[in-house]
Amino acid sequence: MSTFISRIARPLVAGLMVLAAQSALAVDLVEGVNYKTLKPAVPTNVAPGKVEVVEVFWYACGHCYLLEPKLEAWEKKGKPANVELIRMPAVWNELLKTHARLFYTIEILGRPELNNEAFREINVRGNRLDTPDKIEAFFTSRGVPKADFQKAFSGFAVESKLARATDLNKRYRITSTPTVVVNGKYVTDAGMAGGEDKLFQVINALAAREKPAG
C-alpha cells in the first residue's frame, strides 16, 4: 500500500516543486533589473491564447551566434506550450538592414536551414555578407537559382517585412542584440537576466504572467 501511495505521491510532489520554483522565480524578478516594461505596450501578431516572444538578433552579433543553439533547444523542449517564438532582425544601420534583407530572403525562399549557415558564414568563415553580390553568391552556392534569389531579395514581400521590422525596432526601442521582447510588454536580455541560461527562466516567468486571450 505504501509503495502504491509513493508512486502517486512522487509525481505530485515533483509537480508542486516545479510550481514552487516557478512562483519563486516570478517573485524574484525585479523591474528595471531583470527586465524593462514597454510603455505603451506593442500589439502582438500571434493567435489568441498565444504569448509572443520576439528575439531581435543580428547575424554578425557574436552573442547572437552563441545564443542560437540554446534558443533552438528552448524552442523545442523548454518553452511553454502557449508561447510562440518569432525571430526578428535588428535594423538600426545600413549593414543591419542588409542582413535583415538576407534573413527575410531566406524566409521567402523557404530555406530555414540557411539561417545557421548565415551565422557560420559571418562568425566562423569571416565572410561578412555585407553586399548584394556576396549574399547572392552565398545563396547560389547553396543551390538557389540566381533568378529566384534576385526576385526575392528585391521583391515586395521582403520590402514589406523589412518595413514592419523597422517599425517594430523603433517601438521596441532596440539598441543592442540579442534582445527579447515578451508579448509586446517586457524587454530583457542575457545581461539583465544574469546569463544566457537564466535568460530562458526569465522569459518563461514573464510569459507566465500573461493570461490567454479570449
What does this structure look like?
By secondary structure, the chain is α+β, with helices and mostly antiparallel strands. The longest helix has 27 residues. Helix content is 57%, strand content 11%. The chain folds into two domains: 30 residues; 178 residues, Glutaredoxin (3-Layer(aba) Sandwich). The radius of gyration is 20 Å and the shape is globular. A hairpin with a 3-residue loop joins strand 4 and strand 5.
Task: Write a concise keyword list for the protein shown above.
2 domains, five-stranded mixed beta sheet, single chain, 214 residues, 57% helix, 5 strands, alpha+beta, Glutaredoxin
- The share of residues in helices is 55-70%
Mean pLDDT: 90
Uncertain runs with pLDDT below 50, 5 residues or more? 11-27
Provide the number of structural domains: 2
CATH topology of the largest domain: Glutaredoxin
Q: Which CATH C-level class of the largest domain is it? A: Alpha Beta
Strand segment count: 5
CATH architecture of the largest domain: 3-Layer(aba) Sandwich
Through-space gap between termini: 45 Å
Can you count the helices? 9
Secondary-structure-based class equals alpha+beta
- For the biggest β-sheet, the strand order reads 1-5-4-2-3
Query: Sheet bearing the most strands, described?
Result: 5 strands, mixed
Instruction: Estimate the strand proportion.
Output: 5-15%
Q: What would the principal axes of the Cα set say about the shape?
A: globular
What value does the Rg take, in angstroms? Answer: 20 Å
CATH superfamily of the largest domain: Glutaredoxin
What is the N-to-C order of secondary-structure elements (H for helix, E for strand)? HEEHEHHHHHEEHH
